[in-house]
């Protein structure tokens, strides 16, 4: 399986804190129309940590059935518990996924040897293409490029990295330290363009949940569109992932809907909505 382009870290639409499968289906159709190359349910953008493993699996199953082989299927399987992560990986395999994104263990602090052992055990037990997910802002743990390189040298099914650290100096090292032919994905939308110039495989970019702009940047390598996404992210960085869900409702479902927040998140306040309206203006210029 080849992985490239834009892989969407899918939001998880809810209605009154119940998974809104109708909206997930509409999101899949939206992504197909926009030519997105892959989907990644069970993502940070989808607030995966707020769901039980049972609900996590229900999301993976629904997305797989609706994609029906038309997009690359990459499951978020990280559960902050090795046993649950491995079990979710095996479930994803049964559901037809070819790849898995595995975030570092979170909340507690781990050294590089700890992280190496964690990914080693996942790679030994999960028969999927594994992407190491480096997101220290959320996990509290930074996995070094040298550690990822060591993992890739010893486990052939560790095929790539998704980096959301925002550290371009460290991002550079993926190209000098990782074995050739591995997949390198940028997780920050406003860093996609420079990452592509370095040779990145693509981006795992949350704005693709509600706009085709980031995919256009991937396809066109447009510096003008890059600076547009820079301004979009300048606004969105102030808010949590519910802002992405709000924009999905406004721009994809064409509704101003309430009760879209996953507990314990709350809906955006009036002044926050007014600010995010500036994102819509930027996207429609």
Commentary on this structure:
The chain has helices at residues 21-33, 53-67, 82-94, 112-125, 136-139, 145-154, 168-177, 192-198, 213-220, 223-236, 242-251, 270-284; strands at 5-9, 14-15, 18-19, 38-40, 72-76, 99-103, 129-134, 158-163, 183-186, 202-204. The chain is an alpha/beta fold. The chain has a single domain (5-284), classed as Alpha-Beta Barrel (TIM Barrel), CATH 3.20.20. An 8-stranded parallel barrel has the order 1-4-5-6-7-8-9-10, surrounded by 6 helices. It has a two-stranded antiparallel ribbon with strand order 2-3. Strand 2 (14-15) and strand 3 form a beta hairpin. Helix 3 (82-94) packs parallel to helix 4 (112-125) and helix 4 (112-125) packs parallel to helix 6 (145-154). The longest helix has 15 residues, at 53-67.
Question: Which SSEs are present, and which pair or pack?
Answer:
Elements lengths: L4 E5 L4 E2 L2 E2 L1 H13 L4 E3 L12 H15 L4 E5 L5 H13 L4 E5 L8 H14 L3 E6 L1 H4 L5 H10 L3 E6 L4 H10 L5 E4 L5 H7 L3 E3 L8 H8 L2 H14 L5 H10 L18 H15 L1
Parallel strand pairs: 1-4, 1-10, 4-5, 5-6, 6-7, 7-8, 8-9, 9-10
Antiparallel strand pairs: 2-3
What's a concise summary of this model?
It is built from twelve helices and ten strands. It is of the alpha/beta class.
Give the name of the CATH superfamily. Answer: Aldolase class I
Helix content: 40-55%
Mean pLDDT comes to 96
Number of helices in the DSSP assignment: 12
CATH architecture name? Alpha-Beta Barrel
What is the radius of gyration computed over CA atoms, rounded to a whole number of angstroms?
A: 18 Å
The percentage of residues in β strands lies in 5-15%
User: Biggest β-sheet: count, sense, barrel?
Assistant: 8 strands, parallel, barrel
In the predicted model, the low-confidence regions spanning at least 5 consecutive residues are: none
Terminal-residue CA separation: 37 Å
CATH class: Alpha Beta
Order of helices and strands: EEEHEHEHEHEHHEHEHEHHHH
How would the global form be characterised?
Answer: globular
């Amino acid at each position: 399986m080849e992985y490239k382009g834009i892989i969407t870290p899918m939001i998880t639409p809810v209605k009154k804190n119940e998974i809104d499968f109708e909206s997930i289906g509409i999101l899949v159709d939206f992504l197909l129309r926009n030519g997105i190359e892959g989907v990644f349910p069970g993502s940070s953008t989808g607030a995966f940590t707020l769901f039980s493993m049972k609900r996590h699996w229900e999301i993976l199953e629904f997305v797989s059935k609706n994609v029906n082989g038309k997009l690359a299927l990459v499951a978020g399987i990280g559960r902050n518990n090795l046993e649950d992560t491995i079990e979710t990986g095996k479930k994803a395999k049964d559901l037809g996924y070819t790849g898995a994104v595995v975030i570092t263990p979170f909340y507690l602090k781990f050294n590089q040897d700890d992280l190496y052992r964690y990914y080693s055990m996942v790679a030994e037990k999960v028969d999927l293409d594994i992407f190491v997910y480096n997101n220290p802002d959320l996990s509290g743990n930074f996995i070094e490029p040298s550690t990822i390189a060591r993992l890739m040298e010893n486990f052939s099914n560790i095929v790539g990295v998704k980096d959301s650290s925002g550290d371009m100096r460290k991002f550079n090292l993926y190209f000098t330290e990782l074995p050739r032919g591995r997949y390198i994905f940028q997780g920050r939308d406003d860093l996609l363009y420079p990452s592509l110039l370095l040779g990145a495989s693509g981006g795992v970019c949350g704005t693709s949940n509600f706009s085709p702009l980031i995919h256009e940047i991937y396809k066109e390598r447009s510096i003008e569109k890059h600076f547009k996404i820079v301004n979009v992210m300048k606004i969105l960085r102030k808010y949590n992932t519910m802002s992405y869900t709000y924009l999905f409702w406004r721009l994809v479902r064409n509704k101003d809907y309430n009760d879209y927040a996953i507990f314990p998140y709350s809906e955006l306040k009036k002044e926050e909505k007014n600010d995010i309206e500036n994102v819509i203006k930027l996207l429609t210029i």
